[in-house]
Amino acid sequence: MSPASPRVSVVVATHQRRELLGLLLESLEAQEGMAPGEMEVVVVDDGSSDGTWEFLQERQNSVPFPLHPVRRSTAGGPATARNEGWRAAAADLILFTDDDCRPAAGWVRTLLGVLEADPDIGLVQGRTEPRREEWEGSGPFARTLLVVDEDGYYATCNMGYRRAWLEELDGFDEQFRQPYGEDTDLAWRAIKAGAGTRFEPAALVHHAVIPSSWPAHVRDRRRRQWIVLTTQRHPELRSRFHHRYWYEASHPRALLAAAGLLGAAAGVVSGRPLAAAGAVLVAPYVRYRLVERRLPSRPVNQPAAIALALVADLFEVGVMARASARYRTLVL
Mean pLDDT of successive 10-residue segments in the chain (332 residues)? Predict the structure, then answer.
């Protein structure tokens, strides 16, 4: 790295999130402990049509750090966009965050310090939490991210890498076309190649809370298919699953509940007293959603929320089953 190069490059892939991107840039403007020229930001606009590119060009001259926008005419997915970003970056140390995140004021300094202090650390993960004021009362199908330890998934919303490892591994695998699993795959390839890891809780990123929407929640389940491909490549992930083969603890309970409901319906048609047996099979799912993983909604709305959650879980099991067949790796 030449003397004129920055100490660290922050790389962001963005798609159709102009408003959230503005909040991210404000958070990066507020970073503490970084002298002028020590940090650059590379933002890859992955085929947005919401004015993101014009917004980035406008902000280039108003932020206190070098901002380098990269434009992709068509969306290629986050793996492709992040690869373009880190390859366009000037520093030997690369930090990744997402366009729906707001790093705390000491985020860059903290991750940079970990990487500079120990050359054996190839990748470092920070802590990710939703903003409390956004999460409280957000509804049963709101979406965010909580990472409080090294969970094995290495979400790129809060990661640091040495460029040398990104170059050796050729970056993210661009076969992953949606934002799910590509970051986990990269991290595990680095670990298997010998890169040391560190979890640094002081490096905090606040993740946006996507408003509660059941249709959006169901649509989002489709991208879970990519974790099956990741598991095929890295069976070590199974230790993070529920009994190794269930991606979520709700999934086996959802299948039992579906069997119970179908049995009870068959009983109504045939005139057989199967309602009690059906209730027994449904009960574990209801208990899970009321006690073990309570849906954040008002008590009066709980029955409807549980019913909708059950449908979403069954849809997700179907997505995982189809991917399991495609990749010949069982994850449900």
Answer: 78 94 95 94 96 94 94 94 97 97 97 97 97 84 94 96 98 94 98 98 96 95 96 96 97 96 74 70 93 79 93 98 98 98
Look at residue 193 and tell me if it is in a domain.
yes
Last residue of a domain, one of 212, 247, 275: 212
Q: Which of 179, 332, 193, 181 is nearest to 250 (CA)?
A: 332
Helix, strand, coil shares, percent, the chain, to 5: 50, 20, 35
State residue 2's pLDDT score.
Answer: 44
Q: What pLDDT score does 275 carry? A: 67
CATH number at residue 18: 3.90.550.10
Tokens at 168, concatenated: 């050796």
| CA–CA distance, 185 with 169 (Å, rounded to integer) | 11
Give percent of the chain above pLDDT 70: 96
Q: Which stretches of 145-287 are assigned E, i.e. beta strand?
A: 159-162, 196-207
- Which SS3 state, helix, strand or coil, does residue 330 take? coil
Q: How far is CA 54 from CA 18, 62, 84, 167, in A?
A: 10, 14, 19, 31
202 and 235 within one domain: no
Residue 270 in domain: yes
CA-atom Rg of the chain in angstroms: 22
188, 212, 236 — which closes off a domain? Answer: 212
Q: In this structure, are residues 159 and 96 in contact, taking their beta carbons and an 8 Å threshold?
A: yes
- In sequence order, what are the residues at sequence separation of 6 or more whose Cβ sits closer than 8 angstroms to the Cβ of residue 124? 111, 114, 115, 159, 160, 197, 198, 199, 200, 203
Per the CB < 8 A criterion, the answer to whether 115 and 198 are in contact is: no
What pLDDT score does 271 carry?
Answer: 57
Domain extent for 179: 8-212
Question: Same domain, yes or no, for 181 and 243?
Answer: no
Same domain, 14 and 90: yes
Q: Are residues 208 and 329 in the same domain?
A: no
Please give the tally of structural domains in the chain.
2
179 and 45, same structural domain? Answer: yes
- pLDDT reported for residue 274: 62
